Amino acid sequence: MCAMRWFFNYLLTESNPDFYVQGEVFDFVILVISTILIAGAGNIINDYFDVKADRINKPHRLIVTKHLKRRWAIVTHWIFNFIAFAIALHLSIKHQSFVYLFIHLLSINLLWFYSMYFKRKFVIGNVIIAGLTGLVPILVAIYFVNVFQLGSNQESWFESLVRIGQDYFAFNPSLQDISQLILNFGFAMGVFAFFTNLAREVIKDAEDVKGDLLLNARTIPIVLGRKKTDTIVSILLLFPALLFGGFIAFSSWLTPIEFIIVFAPIAIAIIFQLITLLVICTGKSEKKYRTANHLLKISMLAGLFTPVYLILI
Q: Which residue, 93, 124, 143, 277, has most beta carbons within 10 Å?
């Protein structure tokens, strides 16, 4: 989120050197805090419902019941969510946009129902977590489009929301509209984050089969078996590479070499995803899933450098 703020702020000041919105830095800091609190609350409630499985899958990382009593876990979960909701309410009122309340309430409720119910269901739990992860860069993009509008012309929250929805489906890197460029970049980062995290969630389920069986979970590895799980992970890992290759092939504003240089962190991230694909396809033991998990973390870290890299070049 901070890397994207640096990049978006750079775009805004480049287009208008005198651009300034009073209180923007404070608003962004509390937006980051609210996102962290929701993620933290989601982790707490997930651990709360997974104590039985975690005693088998991750006994060395068990927190609830070992370091934190169950009732305090629930109290902390609600405190975190309440503070995050209050921040969303402040931002929605100030920016005249319902989108902050909507995204925060959606995230809080999805994480609760995921931990309590959807996590043990086939596919849907993986999609929820990957979707919420992909929503983070989109949230930052929406925030900066709202800031941009506050600094230039006023819109009602409804007009702003409608325009943002329309802009998502008009990807065109040659557009001069700075708000459109911000939305397109946020959406592209969100898609990359979604597929990378979806693959990682399935890999984590493959690591945790023993504990999940105790909870009668119907994860992809349990329902389909490891062979089909490997095929699904391979498809998910290939999709970002194919998408990136498609952008290179059809880009009219950069040559293939220039495209790879401009988006080097994404290219590096995809290389690590392809290495992960190789590990999944050639590995024979269950340890390959842990290796694949670590490789995907490196891939995600490389992708996070994209906004900073774009400024430096």
A: 143
